[in-house]
Specification:
Elements: E1 5-9, H1 17-29, E2 33-38, H2 44-52, H3 58-79, H4 83-105, H5 109-133, E3 138-141, H6 160-177, E4 179-183, E5 186-188, E6 194-196, H7 202-212, E7 217-222, E8 243-245, H8 246-254, H9 265-271, E9 275-279, E10 287-291, E11 300-315, H10 325-335, E12 343-345, E13 349-355, H11 369-376, E14 380-394, H12 403-410, E15 416-421, E16 427-433, H13 434-449
Helix pairs in contact: 2-3, 2-5, 3-4, 3-5, 4-5, 6-7, 7-9, 8-9
Bound molecules: adenosine-5'-diphosphate (ADP), aspartic acid and magnesium ion.
Residues 10-13, 39, 200, 222-224, 227-228, 230-233, 257-259, 302 line the site of adenosine-5'-diphosphate.
Length: 450
């Protein structure tokens, strides 16, 4: 199946019937595209998250549900409201209403995932019907049969071995003879409960399925024609990068380029599958190829920004000349399921950054009282919020004399709270106050990437 391609379409690409028709044209133009992974229609997941966090006012709850229904109804209008699919969508809306009422009394991560999964379930059912209406042999598939995850509801981790076995069993034959339409973002644990991979997780789903099925290509179709030198919403002169290496793309995704879920490149890297990123609105506008390696290796390739970062400084005299303090501290973060990003140390303190961008499906803060209580057992804890992490991505940065002076002279008058440099030759990262974040991106772009 190394010839086959999995194509993923994001929320704006499946926002309405016209957008879905664009996707259908892209899928059917490439006979190798055998598996299609969809997000929920644009806006639906946000509305579902709102309901899942508990909307006490009934009128507001109904209004939120109406907004979700309206998006589905526009696509049903195009389909002419056939009985079977109209009934299925109605069942999903009824289910959302019941669970949203439950969430008012008490919500939790399990319930959030039971609610938010409806977005992807509905968009895939509707898209399958759009394909069928146009004469294509499309089959809807419930990805929860194969996308096995752990129990970390809201940000579950895939269990790669089980996923591979299940995908081979359930999908290998199906994709030989049909175009299979399935959901991104959602999965299920060993007990069959629905889980989600975290916001933006559909990119990751597509890459995971491509790996599990030994496909030869992953396509990520979104609302911009490729990965740009920075977020085009921040810098209007940002431009698409024709080709980028796995290592660089992984750094970009990890450090905030929203175009790819942070983990997307991992399965592609493991299985050596090239990934194409393009625009479903302008499929002929080209895009970006993410490949194992590229001929061009510019010193500066792109700049990414991740807002809403937390800096924790742990200070204790116990660190002086002692062994094991770092491992104790990191053990606490691990116990609370948190991954630490940047780390710097001094004689008596360590400073670490945590990403609070609502990567969990419920969008809530990751700083819990339980975590802080555990940390306060070993050190005094200072919390700084309202920070942005800027990552400059490129090649051989830490080995090229003068590269850092180019970076820091571009932002000489912007206060920097912390710098991480040298751990990877592909990135230079630093923290600035939120109010300076976008300005730092603009300056770096003008000086190094325009
Ligand atoms: P989808 O719904 O298709 O998954 P997303 O909104 O998650 O789309 O990601 C696409 C958006 O990512 C773009 O509209 C753009 O604003 C943003 N973005 C951030 N960084 C970059 C970048 N370096 N290149 C392109 N787009 C970026
Ligand atoms: N629908 C989910 C979200 O909005 C997953 C995705 O779009 O990738 O986060
Ligand atoms: Mg996305």
């Amino acid at each position: 199946m190394s010839d086959f391609c999995v194509a993923k379409f994001g929320g704006t690409s499946v926002a309405n019937s016209d957008a879905m028709l664009n996707c259908m044209r892209i899928v059917t133009a490439n006979p190798k595209t055998k598996l299609v992974v969809l997000s929920a229609s644009a806006g639906v997941t946000n509305l579902l998250v709102k309901l899942a966090n508990g909307v006490a006012d009934e009128a507001e709850r109904e209004e939120t549900i109406s907004k979700i229904s309206a998006i589905q109804n526009q696509i049903l209008d195009y389909l002419g409201h056939p009985e079977a699919i109209s009934g299925e969508i109605k069942n999903h809306i009824d289910q959302i209403r019941i669970l949203a009422r439950e969430a008012v009394y008490e919500t939790n991560d399990v319930l959030v995932d039971r609610i938010v999964c409806n977005g992807e379930l509905m968009s895939t059912k509707l898209f399958t019907e759009v394909m069928k209406k146009n004469g294509y042999d499309a089959v809807w598939f419930d990805v929860r049969k194969v996308m096995r995850t752990d129990n970390n509801f809201g940000k579950a981790a895939p269990i790669i071995e089980v996923l591979r076995i299940q995908a081979q069993k359930e999908l290998s034959d199906l994709v030989q003879n049909h175009i299979v339409i399935t959901q991104g973002f959602i999965g299920s644990n060993a007990e069959g409960q629905t889980t989600t991979l975290g916001r933006g997780g559909s990119d990751y789903s597509a890459a995971l399925l491509g790996e599990a099925l030994n496909f030869g290509e992953v396509e990520i179709w979104t609302d911009v024609p490729g990965i740009y030198t920075t977020d085009p919403r921040i810098v209007s002169t940002a431009h698409a990068i024709p080709e980028i290496s796995f290592a660089e793309a992984a750094e970009m995704a990890t450090f905030g380029a929203k175009i790819l879920h942070p983990a997307t490149v991992q399965p592609a890297m493991r299985a050596n599958i090239p990934v194409f990123v393009g625009s479903s609105k302008e499929p002929r506008a080209g895009g970006t190829w993410i490949r194992p390696d590229t001929d061009s290796k510019p010193l500066f390739r792109a700049v990414a920004i991740r807002k809403n970062q937390i800096l924790l400084t742990l200070k204790t005299a116990r660190m002086v000349g002692a062994c094991g303090f770092l491992s104790t501290a990191f053990g606490i973060f691990a116990k609370h399921g948190l991954s630490v990003d940047l780390v710097t140390t001094s004689e008596q303190s360590i400073a670490v950054t945590l990403d609070n961008t609502g990567t969990k499906s419920n969008g809530q803060s990751i700083l819990s009282e339980a975590l802080l209580a555990d940390l306060r057992q070993i050190a005094s804890v200072k919390i700084e919020e309202d920070l942005s992490l800027i990552a400059l991505i490129g090649n051989h940065m830490s080995r090229t004399p003068g590269s850092e002076s180019k970076v820091f002279s571009a932002i000489f008058d912007i206060p920097i709270r912390l710098i991480c440099y040298g751990a990877s030759s592909h990135n230079t990262c630093f923290l600035v106050h939120s109010k300076d974040g976008e300005e730092a991106v603009r300056r770096l772009h003008v000086h190094l990437l325009d």
